[in-house]
């Protein structure tokens, strides 16, 4: 499998970047080949259309964007899901990373 | 909180959020104003710079040895003018571009189409009345009211209408100039924009002309006085802003981004309000608007939506729950920068019948306090835009160009927020056992 790119999306990309650091730590621990990064919702679709994205996770606060993201990125075949709110709130990098990995391997 | 009615209510709000946020123009307007922030901050920066350095009453220029600094004020003036007084121009371009993007049009040319369409609806002269009552017409100029935020609503309308027309024309094969096959594709596509552009700009100019011919007023002036001004009045009054905040808070309580929900209304009106204040401040005039973008951030969302800086302090003071204290520790640094998702989803506040109450009422109360403090003249009105992640106290100080009354009022608001949250955090202490059991 080529290197995995996990994209997290929230409103401004601010709170999600905290989760990104937690997930990066976890990736290091598990010695995985994966990138995690956060994007604000205004740029996310455009980015996913042009760049390599393996999994796209939405913050719970923007879950109402899920249908639009799925629709806009239909041709790209990127798995899209909403992060569990409790895992998001506790910045649980391990569980969110697991969610991303599960989604990618489906 | 398992009652059926609540579940139904949450479901309806979720559906509503999804519907509203998938509306094309809502998406385009939100993206436009997000992209506009650097323009407003540039203007804010120039204005502050000017007031601290070049101003002979407030700045370093008041010191005799440094009085030459006043000579440089035109630099700040020109930046202020072409950011703050040109906001509508940038909005129209960006909005046209964003709508076109959502209509799957490529390139930035639609931004130009939108801008031309808006500009041709306005007069290219100003009627100027001199002191002795004579009226002079100055030609070949665009009046300030058509480039500053007074033109905002017509500009947004013109951008949307022109790009929809442009998209529609683009789909009509009959209107395309046919080129022989031997002509390279790049050449023929450059002609494809020609007919739609000519048609749309002509339509918009005629539209503007007809309105003026019939009513004697320009479209921009009509939209401003009939739509924009009343809306501004509504949102900039205390009840209006509190209602907007209430809506945002209710969406946060069901776990959705409340600011995203109110942004399409809030951004145009509150950004216009702060920009008007900046312009007045730079010109040394009376500051017009109490309620504006920094008002929202300074008096209602310190620590994040719900004034959760108060909640953080309350938890550190009285919470006996390990889970609360842990989340509060995790949230403290982000909280200083007004990021509170860990609190909302971690404690959680979301769908939490105890914490939802202070979360909703705190910003309403502190907003009211801020409003009255400004009304009676204790705190100054904000004069420059400050980005929302700027910490409390600093944002109050900068946005008012150094008003201590505003800082004191904000500190008072934070103390009030702590007092509102305290009893609820105490109540939450008692529920700890049952919830841990429920989680297992």
What's this, in brief?
The complex is a heterodimer of chains A (106) and B (440). By secondary structure, chain A is of the alpha/beta class.
Gross morphology of chain B is globular
By helix and strand content of chain B, what is the structural category?
A: mainly alpha
Q: What structural category arises from helix and sheet content of chain A?
A: alpha/beta
> What ranges of chain B have pLDDT less than 50 throughout 5 or more consecutive residues?
436-440
Number of strands of chain A: 4
Number of strands of chain B: 2
Strand content of the residues of chain B, in percent?
under 5%
Q: Biggest β-sheet of chain B: count, sense, barrel?
A: 2 strands, antiparallel
Show unreliable segments of chain A. none
- The CATH topology of chain A corresponds to Rossmann fold
Describe this structure in words.
Chain A is an alpha/beta fold. Chain A contains 5 helices and 4 strands; from the N terminus they run E-H-E-H-E-H-E-H-H. Chain A has one domain: 3-Layer(aba) Sandwich (Rossmann fold), CATH 3.40.50. In chain A, strand 1, helix 1 and strand 2 form a beta-alpha-beta unit. The longest helix of chain A is centred in the first third of the chain and has 16 residues. Chain A starts with a strand and ends with a helix. Chain B is mostly helical and 440 residues long. Chain B has 2 domains: 144 residues, no CATH class; 201 residues, no CATH class. At the A-B interface, helix 4 of A face helix 1, helix 2, helix 14 and helix 15 of B.
């Amino acid at each position: 499998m080529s290197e995995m790119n996990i994209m997290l999306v929230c409103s401004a990309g601010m709170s999600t970047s905290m989760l990104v650091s937690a997930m990066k730590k976890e990736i290091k621990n598990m010695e995985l080949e994966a990138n995690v990064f956060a994007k604000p919702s205004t740029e996310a679709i455009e980015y996913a259309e042009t760049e390599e994205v393996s999994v796209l996770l939405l913050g719970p606060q923007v879950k109402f964007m899920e249908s639009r993201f799925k629709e806009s990125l239909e041709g790209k075949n990127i798995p899209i899901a909403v992060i569990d709110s409790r895992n998001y709130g506790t910045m649980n990098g391990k569980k969110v990373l697991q969610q991303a990995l599960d989604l990618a391997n489906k | 909180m398992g009652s059926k009615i609540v579940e139904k209510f949450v479901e309806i709000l979720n559906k509503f959020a999804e519907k509203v946020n998938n509306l094309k123009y809502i998406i385009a307007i939100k993206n436009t104003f997000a992209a506009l922030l650097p323009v407003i901050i540039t203007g804010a920066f120039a204005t502050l710079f000017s007031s601290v350095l070049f101003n002979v009453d407030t700045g370093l220029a008041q010191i005799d040895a440094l009085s030459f600094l006043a000579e440089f004020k035109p630099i700040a003036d020109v930046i202020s003018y072409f950011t703050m007084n040109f906001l509508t121009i940038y909005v129209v371009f960006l909005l046209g571009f964003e709508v076109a993007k959502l209509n799957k049009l490529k390139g930035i040319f639609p931004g130009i189409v939108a801008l031309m369409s808006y500009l041709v609806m306005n007069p290219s002269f100003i009627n100027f009345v001199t002191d002795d009552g004579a009226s002079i017409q100055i030609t070949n100029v665009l009046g300030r009211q058509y480039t500053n935020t007074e033109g905002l609503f017509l500009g947004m309308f013109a951008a949307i209408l022109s790009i929809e027309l442009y998209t529609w024309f683009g789909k009509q094969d009959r209107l395309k100039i046919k080129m022989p096959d031997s002509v390279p594709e790049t050449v023929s596509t450059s002609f494809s924009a020609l007919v739609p552009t000519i048609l749309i700009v002509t339509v918009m100019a005629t539209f503007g002309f007809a309105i003026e011919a019939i009513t004697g007023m320009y479209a921009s002036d009509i939209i401003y006085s009939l739509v924009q001004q009343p809306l501004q009045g509504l949102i900039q009054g205390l009840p209006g802003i509190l209602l907007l905040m209430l809506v945002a808070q209710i969406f946060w309580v069901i776990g959705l981004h409340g600011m995203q929900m109110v942004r399409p209304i809030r951004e145009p009106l509150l950004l216009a309000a702060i920009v008007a204040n900046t312009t007045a401040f730079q010109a040394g005039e009376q500051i017009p608007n109490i309620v504006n973008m920094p008002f929202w951030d300074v008096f209602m969302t310190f620590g994040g939506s719900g004034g959760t800086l108060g909640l953080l302090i309350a938890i550190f003071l009285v919470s006996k729950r390990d889970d609360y204290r842990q989340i509060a520790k995790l949230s403290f640094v982000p909280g200083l920068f007004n990021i509170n998702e860990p609190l909302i989803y971690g404690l959680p506040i979301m769908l939490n019948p105890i914490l939802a109450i202070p979360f909703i009422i705190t910003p309403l109360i502190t907003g009211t306090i801020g409003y009255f403090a400004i009304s009676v003249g204790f705190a100054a009105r904000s004069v420059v835009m400050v980005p929302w992640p700027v910490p409390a106290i600093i944002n109050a100080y900068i946005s008012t160009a150094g008003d201590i009354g505003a800082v004191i009022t904000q500190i008072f608001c934070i103390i009030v927020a702590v007092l509102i949250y305290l009893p609820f955090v105490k109540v939450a202490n008692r529920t700890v056992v049952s919830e841990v059991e429920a989680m297992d």
